């Protein structure tokens, strides 16, 4: 009797197991697409990303590394695809991106980690209308940005940095309604960058061949870098920085000219302002009250043609680079106080026409915890530096007296840069 009961129980258990729904299958089109994607890519020596991609596995969604799936109608669809491990000790992938990616029509996120993947971005990527994130960085992708990308109305982040992409940026890219983060750093893009008509937060165009004047930008922007391009023109039509949310601004190493607008110094949110190596002229506004720019703040105006006296407006910045300009007058006492208090940690004013610094600075010049470089000015006798000068400052403590005499008589016509 007990045996019969046991038998019945076992039967019941096995029936229950059999009637449990089997896990949903990966959609066959997605399965075929993954197969094609794998066929054009491979691990570089030292990477084993594809080790788990066994196409005999019944459930790729739970066994393949780099994919997640979501259930849709009657099957599983690939939801996110991350190619490569992204581990620092991994060398990444080689090969190219298969056009079959565009068959993964439920994809919301496409990531390719650093490797040496070549070829172009699939031209029909715009068919993946649910895409919110595209991040294809640190490879050797070439060709242009596919025009179809401008159909991705949910696209939030586009990061194509560190590739060999070229051509100009499709104008409608910067009007995509959801776009918040656009990173095109270190490619070979050319031409004028289009006006930004969305609530973009982060725009990084550094190290490309963009030319023309600064584009129109939204007040929402918090991070802007156009460093190391061929851009030119005045800064005063940039946008109303005074009411923007901008925290980080890098316009360095371009050909911008004209003066620095006052509102660059009045926006309370801005903590990094890098304008070095341009063709900027005029003075720094001095009407502005001293404010604390905060920890890590940096203002770099070096290697321009700026003149006039050093502004108290910068006394609240942690790292100040004003070297290689045509500044005159004395180093403001407020700077020396900030250095003493430790709120200012770097002050580079070498290669100007400054005539003095408060004697309170004598102790500071001997302190090793801050970097001060004041060499090659018109201070007599030449003031000693505290070893805080970069090699590029050269070994000369003072400017040749002949250059300083001209200046001291109020003439700036003979100043040499
Ligand atoms: C890389 O690092 C991870 C974790 O630190 C480790 O598990 C893995 O074995 C390493 N891979 C290689 C190829 O060294
Ligand atoms: C997309 O899927 C369809 C249907 O399976 C197939 O005919 C087509 O070749 C695929 N496209 C690509 C680019 O793989
Ligand atoms: C500074 O940023 C905050 C939010 O980040 C914003 O509320 C504030 O309006 C900004 N300040 C100015 C003057 O725009
Ligand atoms: C800067 O302006 C001067 C003329 O004022 C011009 O000769 C020079 O080419 C300009 N430099 C750059 C980098 O634009
Ligand atoms: C800026 O450079 C352009 C082109 O070289 C020149 O036409 C313009 O006058 C310059 N503006 C200023 C304020 O120097
Ligand atoms: C500078 O001005 C003083 C008088 O103000 C004059 O004696 C001197 O010769 C001038 N030096 C030069 C180099 O013009």
TrEMBL record:
Pfam families in alphabetical order: LRR_1 (PF00560), LRR_8 (PF13855), LRRNT_2 (PF08263)
InterPro entries per record: Leu-rich_rpt, LRR_dom_sf, LRR_N_plant-typ, RLP29
PANTHER family: LEUCINE-RICH REPEAT (LRR) FAMILY PROTEIN
Keywords: Leucine-rich repeat, Membrane, Repeat, Signal
Record-given protein name: Leucine-rich repeat-containing N-terminal plant-type domain-containing protein
Domain Leucine-rich repeat-containing N-terminal plant-type: from-to ranges: 30-70
Gene3D superfamilies in the cross-refs: Ribonuclease Inhibitor
GO cellular component: membrane
First and last residue of the signal peptide: 1-18
Species name: Kingdonia uniflora
Annotated compartments: Membrane
Top-level lineage group: Eukaryota
Membrane among keywords: yes
Keyword match Membrane: yes
